[in-house]
């Protein structure tokens, strides 16, 4: 099962197994990790699942939809590497991916 690393705002690092087909947000919520609130439950409308996804890992996921981009425009602390983790669907190639949870997620 792909292992995903989450760096959360308090600086702690959590490594969890996330089954392919689930989102990076699911992996955090199901393991009760701090940081990702996921208020809207993954329907791309709250931006409380905001993470930063560095270069080489970004290519492993589908590109952001217009809807996601628009939400991120208004998200606190948005950067070019920003993504909404509920839109990042884990596949078998995602083993070793590392995300940093945005401070205001
Ligand atoms: S959980 Fe709400 S936008 Fe991702």
UniProtKB/TrEMBL annotation:
Keyword annotations of the record: 2Fe-2S, Iron, Iron-sulfur, Metal-binding
GO terms of molecular function: 2 iron, 2 sulfur cluster binding; electron transfer activity; metal ion binding
SUPFAM superfamilies: 2Fe-2S ferredoxin-like (SSF54292)
Gene3D superfamilies named among the record's database cross-references: 3.10.20.30
Gene Ontology terms: biological process: P450-containing electron transport chain
Pfam families found in the cross-reference section: Fer2
CDD domains for the chain: fer2 (cd00207)
Cofactor: [2Fe-2S] cluster
Top-level division of the source organism's lineage: Bacteria
InterPro entries per record: 2Fe-2S_ferredoxin-like_sf, 2Fe-2S_ferredoxin-type, Adrenodoxin-like, Adrenodoxin_Fe-S_BS, Beta-grasp_dom_sf
Membership in a protein family: Belongs to the adrenodoxin/putidaredoxin family.
Protein name from the UniProt record: 2Fe-2S ferredoxin
Gene: fdxB
């Amino acid at each position: 099962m792909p292992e995903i690393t989450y760096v959360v705002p308090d600086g702690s690092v959590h490594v969890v197994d996330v089954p392919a087909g689930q989102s990076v947000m699911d992996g955090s919520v199901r393991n009760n990790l701090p940081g990702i609130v996921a208020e809207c439950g993954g329907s791309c409308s709250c931006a409380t699942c905001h993470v930063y996804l560095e270069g080489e890992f970004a290519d492993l996921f589908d590109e952001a939809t217009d809807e996601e981009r628009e939400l991120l425009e208004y998200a606190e602390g948005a950067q070019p590497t920003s993504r909404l983790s509920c839109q990042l669907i884990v596949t078998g190639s995602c083993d070793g991916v590392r995300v940093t949870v945005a401070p205001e997620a």
